[in-house]
Amino acid sequence: MVFLTPFPNEIIKEFIHSSTQEQIAGFDLTVKDIMKVHNGGSLDFDNTNRKIPEHETLESENDIWKLQPGGYLVKYNEIVNVPLDAIGIVLPRSSLMRCGGTLCSAVWDPGYNGRGVGLLIIFTEMKIHKNARIAQIIFIKTLEKTTKSYSGEYQNENIEE
């Protein structure tokens, strides 16, 4: 397993402060928006019946979200372009866990480009400030460069805002 560091500008864009966010083996992702999920969704094998539920962007007060226990979606500030010879994995920062929260994510496939979203789970009341560093993305190089790039529904998500 080989970690991809340092991070060229074509991999991560629209970051807040590179030297603060760049870590030894990863790059910190920061909070742009926090959303509440409504009405449940539906998943199936071939996405014929897939239904992504509605999301409501929560308003912050003086750039602070006061969150109650529950699940939320967090949209990151950074636009990530996963190289064709790597996968991205997002993990919570330890400070988030020490405050009573965690973050769930999926594998970010080679060729994915977008402003990703993670599932933020809060176990106790918590305040999160806009631009807080809550996650770290790591890139693991694959054995060889793939010729097949991610082409799913979430390609280029949240870039045009």
Structural summary, described in words:
This protein is mainly β and 161 residues long. It has one domain: Deoxyuridine triphosphatase (dUTPase) (Deoxyuridine 5'-Triphosphate Nucleotidohydrolase, Chain A, Distorted Sandwich), CATH 2.70.40.10. It contains two helices and 13 strands. Strands 1, 3, 4, 6, 8, 9, 11 and 13 form an eight-stranded antiparallel beta sheet that branches. A three-stranded antiparallel beta sheet has the order 2-7-10, with no helix packed on it. Strands 5-12 form a two-stranded antiparallel ribbon. The longest helix has 5 residues. The radius of gyration is 16 Å and the shape is globular. It starts with a strand and ends in a 20-residue tail after the last strand. The model has no long low-confidence stretch (mean pLDDT 90).
Write the layout of secondary structure elements.
Elements: E1 2-3, E2 12-13, H1 18-21, E3 27-38, E4 54-57, E5 64-67, E6 70-76, E7 79-81, E8 86-92, H2 94-98, E9 101-104, E10 113-114, E11 117-122, E12 126-129, E13 133-141
Antiparallel strand pairs: 1-13, 2-7, 3-4, 3-6, 3-13, 5-12, 6-11, 7-10, 8-13, 9-11
